Amino acid sequence: MSEPKLIKTIKDIPKEELFAPGHRLCAGCGIPILVRMVLKAIPGPKVVVTATGCLEVATTIFPYTSWKVPWVHNAFENAASTASGIEAALKILEKKRGGKNAKVIAFGGDGGTFDIGLQALSGALERGHDMIYICYDNEAYMNTGIQRSSATPAGASTTTSPAGKVIPGKLERKKDLIGIAIAHGVEYAATINPAYPVDMYNKIAKAALVKGPTVLHYYTPCPTGWRYDIDKSIEIARLAVQTRIWPLYEYDHGVYKINVMVKRPKPLEEYFKLQGRFRHLLRPENKWLLEKVKKDVEAQWERLLKLAEVS
Amino acid sequence: MKAEVLGRGIRVGMNGNSAVAYAVKQADVDVVAAYPITPQTIMVERLAEYVNNGELNAAFIPVESEHSALSTCVGASLAGARVFTATASQGLALMYEILWIAAGLRTTIVMALGNRAFSPNINIHCSHDDAYAARDAGWIQFFAENVQEAYDLVLQAFRISEDKDVLFPSIVNLDGFILTHSLEALNVLKDEEVKEFLPPKDPVNPIDPDNPMTYGPLDLQDYYIEHRRQQAEHFKASYPKIVKILNEYSEFTGRKYSPVKTYALEDADIGIMILGSSAGTVRYTVDRLREKGMKVGVVSLTLYRPFPIEDIKKVVKGVKVLAIMDRSYSFGSPGAQLYMDVSTALYNLRERPLLFNVIYGLGGRDLTPEHVELIARRAEEVAREGEVKETQIWVGVRE
């Protein structure tokens, strides 16, 4: 395995753009930052598969496309299986007929990954296809109008887990996607965040060099669904890490590493008060839920610390 | 019945599943993605054996569901591979969403469908529910009558689907258990002969990093309907090409293939129309009824989609009553699926046969010569009375 080409500052990021402007993703959306970075950090020929969702609908409105690489959309729940077929076909055609191989990249939102597409993802990871699977997680079904997903954090208000008088938003915890990926025996899995672009670039570059499946879990701020001003996306993304609610870590061939060690976390209230989806948690009658969320966040952090220590 | 023409090939004994798998191996397929389901399981097992023993240089992808099987096939086909999958019944139902996508994205997947009844109640035997469920999705569909035809049609399906004037996926239907599991003698081509008839796939606009394209974009009010219209026109236009390739294969092998098969129909007053393996039973009975002086003939379809409308119009001309047999049921419809197709096809003719619909064989219930005779007698009655009193009857059912 060759060494990944890592960067030290954002100035080292290649200038070439394979994702054209003019797409219809919302102002302030975190997704295009991810896509541009992925297409820059993965060297050589590549093919992109995208599940139904924000990224798909906003970048390929016929007769336009933002993609300067081969791009395939099949359906909602099958990005991983579609990518499996492309990967297997390119490999066998290279062997049989001298065809060109390419790195296969699959994008899915949290709906297409955590929920409806989880089975297809599990199958693809288990079979060991050489692909990078990237979940852009905006923590709800944003494309259909902000419905809860199993990636929606506890306490968040969505259109199907509204902050009501009796039930103040989503009560269930967020599913652990990286844990699920690791349980399949992937060699590399990591969380990435647009407020930490160098970390993000380098993790994508590392994942690209693995021969086999890797999973990246991207925190994508969503002004429309989270209800905040569009210029606050990066600030909120950084706060997510600094409050420990969205730790930046990686799993690299058996070793866990927390990439941004948060010694003195900022209070979660700072993160919550900026977003309409959480604001109700700051009301006195919902204190019990706020406390529960805080406890969960701490437990998650402690668990990660231990994993990083023992590995 | 006249002696069967055996045509080119080496005589072997195989069941339908093995014969299909053998044809797929000879087609030198590049990618197989399939999920086992009775009665198709043996196909998938054989193909895995071929790959693992080095007899077939292909990627065998043991997917975790039928939905993923077809999704994987779509990706592989777009990437330029020759692709095969197989399923039945519930598996086809689980694939349903992707059937339309596979056709609309102009993939060239070939699927063998071991026809099996839909649940409930769960049943592993033959109905044509699954084949009919796929009828609107834009796939070419063939029905095999025996194991020889299943083998031959798989080879022809690859050639047809991958043809530049066609570019639609194909389903080869073979009746669950009756064909999938019956051992039959058949003639198989030599590998070189298959290569001659079926050269490697020359893909149209495959995924290519040097020539990036967007497959499956968002398509709204301003373009969607034009794209559907294009697909509809292309699908219709594929018909003569399908016939041409069937003819070519017929000449190549000496085994005759055409969209519509007829038997003793030229002077018949009564016609019986059927799909799949039971056509043999109908022909056998027709021979006996002819001896008794009844003027009965048979129409069976090898090509079900695109529906051979003009050919059917031609062959049923002169028939007074046509009994249309469906191995399925369409709840709340004016008739079952084949009956509705034929009714629509014939309606605007000035002279057309009277039609009635027969439901038979659901869940693997045998169709016997006695049932066929009963149908013929009923048709005779309709002919005598000059009107259809009951548009739908069931045979072989305990009332």
Record the SSE blueprint.
The complex is a heterodimer of chains A (311) and B (399).
Chain A: H1 31-41, E1 46-50, H2 54-59, E2 71-72, H3 79-97, E3 103-109, H4 110-115, H5 118-127, E4 131-137, H6 177-183, E5 188-192, H7 197-209, E6 214-219, H8 223-226, H9 233-242, E7 249-252, E8 255-258, H10 268-273, H11 287-310
Parallel strand pairs in A: 1-2, 1-3, 3-4, 4-6, 5-6
Antiparallel strand pairs in A: 5-7, 7-8
Helix pairs in contact in A: 1-7, 3-5
Chain B: E1 10-14, H1 16-26, E2 31-33, H2 41-52, E3 59-61, H3 66-78, E4 83-87, H4 89-104, E5 110-115, H5 129-133, E6 140-143, H6 147-162, E7 170-175, E8 184-188, H7 191-197, E9 214-215, H8 224-253, E10 260-263, E11 270-275, H9 279-291, E12 296-301, E13 303-305, H10 309-316, E14 321-326, H11 337-346, E15 354-359, H12 369-385, E16 392-394
Parallel strand pairs in B: 2-3, 2-4, 4-5, 5-7, 6-7, 11-12, 11-14, 14-15, 15-16
Antiparallel strand pairs in B: 1-8, 6-13, 10-12
Task: Describe the 3D structure.
The complex is a heterodimer of chains A (311) and B (399). Chain A has helices spanning 31-41, 54-59, 79-97, 110-115, 118-127, 177-183, 197-209, 223-226, 233-242, 268-273, 287-310; strands spanning 46-50, 71-72, 103-109, 131-137, 188-192, 214-219, 249-252, 255-258. Chain A is α/β, with parallel strands linked by helices. Chain A has an 8-stranded mixed β-sheet with strand order 2-1-3-4-6-5-7-8, sandwiched between helices. Chain A is globular. Chain B folds into 2 domains: 10-253, Thiamin diphosphate (ThDP)-binding fold, Pyr/PP domains (Rossmann fold, 3-Layer(aba) Sandwich), CATH 3.40.50; 260-394, Rossmann fold. Chain B has 12 helices and 16 strands. In chain B, helix 12 (369-385) links the parallel strand 15 (354-359) and strand 16. Chain B is globular. At the A-B interface, strand 1, strand 2, helix 3 and helix 5 of A face helix 3, helix 4 and strand 9 of B. Strand 2 of chain A pairs parallel with strand 9 (214-215) of chain B.
